[in-house]
Design brief:
Order of helices and strands: EHEEEEHHHHHHHHHEEEHEEHEEEEHHHH
Number of strands: 14
CATH architecture of the largest domain: Orthogonal Bundle
Number of helices: 16
Distance between the termini: 72 Å
Largest sheet: 5 strands, mixed
Helix content: 40-55%
Radius of gyration: 32 Å
CATH superfamily of the largest domain: Intergrase catalytic core
Strand content: 5-15%
Shape: elongated
Number of domains: 3
CATH topology of the largest domain: hpI Integrase, Chain A
Length: about 450
């Protein structure tokens, strides 16, 4: 079959058949220029030619992904090289042989790269080319990899790391009493080696077949009323800054993610509403949070006095980083580290650490609450809103959980009114827990609504 392959309309309307077929150009000057038409409708433009009696086929590109002008230019370039080759010109090249040679060169280069690449360089490559461009938490990836994998494997070649090496590294982390850290290490190490496979640095990941080193925490920790009261009161006497105290309480009051709370900025607050922007939201959707009276008290004034101009100016970050001068919020791990430290404060007598009979340091839980994480406060707020009687749709809206299934497409309600009602009801309940005075917390049921 022949057709005018310089005309887009003609090419788009080439008939389909039960089997792939070849259609050549009807222009005698375009010898060997043609297109393979598949039953699915996809088309591949090719150049067919002979060298020393051997039939060759060079793929020029897919249509319509590539424009006809580009495909024809590729054909002309390849055909001129074939003509030069047949005439014995030094400029002559067999396009198929050249393509194969380039592929072999790339494979050889990748093989040499993988054989020479060490773990420390792979970590750098993974962070710069994958984690940092695609993950907001890339600094945490970097911290995890540098703490263990870099220390143990740093100068070893990537190709030399085996499954046994991964298992031993994870076991060593568990043995030092950090099962959660072992799980986090495994997740990031596995991603790094998958990245290495994708970039053809190694053929197979040494993490294949390795299971999660420690049982996963199902995340079902919810603080009781007595624990909430104890935590709220003890925050005033524990070893943390006023900013961290307010941030911990604000997580409980609003039910928002710790990372989103500590990144709060005055630009995001408008009256009694706080809008978490798309770039800071976990699900990449902006989220409006109603700020109750308690929440606004914890946030404090939105303007501060400028010492130079003696004028009031926006505060900026509500929980700023004080360790460096750069304008940014406190570190994302600040809250969790503060909680962890205050649940095991070393006991000292006359300035010296006290040990028990087994030689282990004696510690004191300044928070007075059993082991918990800042994220558990978010779960606690959601659980109490449910107990008050609010429906899952409203609680999911407060928490900014993504809608599932077809409701994601058809239900575009932002639930602002319902969110306000839920957070105000939770505030009343929380105040009654903290003060010990019963507040009128009316169960919000369908009937009450």
């Amino acid at each position: 079959m022949k057709a005018n392959l310089s005309n887009d309309a003609v090419v788009r309307n080439l008939p389909l058949a039960d089997k792939p077929y070849y259609c050549m150009s009807d222009d005698k000057k375009e010898k060997g220029f043609g297109v393979l038409v598949y039953p699915t409708g996809s088309m591949t433009f090719v150049f067919r030619y002979k060298i020393d009696g051997t039939q060759k086929l060079l793929k020029l590109g897919e249509y319509p992904k590539e424009k006809l002008a580009y495909l024809r230019a590729e054909y002309l370039k390849a055909s001129l090289r074939v003509k030069d080759l047949r005439r014995g010109s030094a400029d002559g090249v067999d396009p198929v042989a050249e393509k194969r040679r380039k592929q072999e060169d790339r494979i050889a280069e990748a093989t040499a790269h993988s054989q020479a690449l060490t773990i420390d360089k792979l970590i750098t490559e993974y962070i710069e080319k994958h984690a940092e461009p695609s993950k907001r938490s890339w600094k945490e990836d970097e911290r995890i990899l540098k703490k263990d994998a870099l220390v143990v494997w740093g100068k070893r070649k990537v190709a030399d790391i085996k499954k046994r090496d991964v298992v031993l590294l994870l076991e060593s982390i568990i043995e030092r009493g950090s099962p959660g850290s072992a799980n986090n290490n495994f997740k990031i190490i596995r991603k790094m080696f998958r990245f290495a496979v994708q970039r053809d640095i190694i053929e197979h990941s040494p993490c294949d077949g390795v299971v999660m080193p420690a049982p996963l925490n199902r995340g079902d920790r919810v603080l009781s009323e007595s624990e909430i009261e104890t935590l709220w009161q003890n925050l005033d006497t524990c070893h943390v800054s006023d900013a961290i105290k307010s941030a911990i309480r604000l997580i409980l009051v609003t039910g928002q993610r710790p990372g989103e709370v500590i990144g709060m900025h005055t630009d995001e607050i408008d009256g009694t509403w706080w809008t978490i922007p798309t770039e800071r939201s976990k699900n990449k959707k902006s989220h409006r949070v109603y700020l109750t009276v308690t929440a606004l008290e914890l946030i404090g004034p939105l303007k501060v006095l400028d010492e130079k101009t003696k004028e009031m100016k926006p505060k900026g970050f509500i929980f700023p980083c004080t360790a460096i001068k750069k304008d940014q919020p406190m570190g994302r791990l600040s809250i969790s580290q503060a909680v962890s430290r205050n649940m095991a404060v070393p006991v000292q007598v006359n300035g010296k650490q006290v040990f028990d009979k087994n030689g282990k340091p004696i510690t004191e839980n300044k928070l007075g609450v059993a082991d918990f994480t800042p994220h558990d406060l978010r779960r606690t707020a959601a659980t109490f809103m449910s107990q008050i009687g609010f429906m899952d749709e409203t609680i999911d809206a407060v928490l900014n959980h993504s809608k599932q299934g077809v409701i994601r497409t058809y239900n575009l309600n932002r639930y602002d009114k319902e969110k306000q009602m839920a957070l105000e009801a939770w505030e009343r309940k929380l105040n009654s827990i903290i003060t010990g005075n019963e507040s009128k917390v009316i169960p919000f049921t369908r009937k009450a609504a």
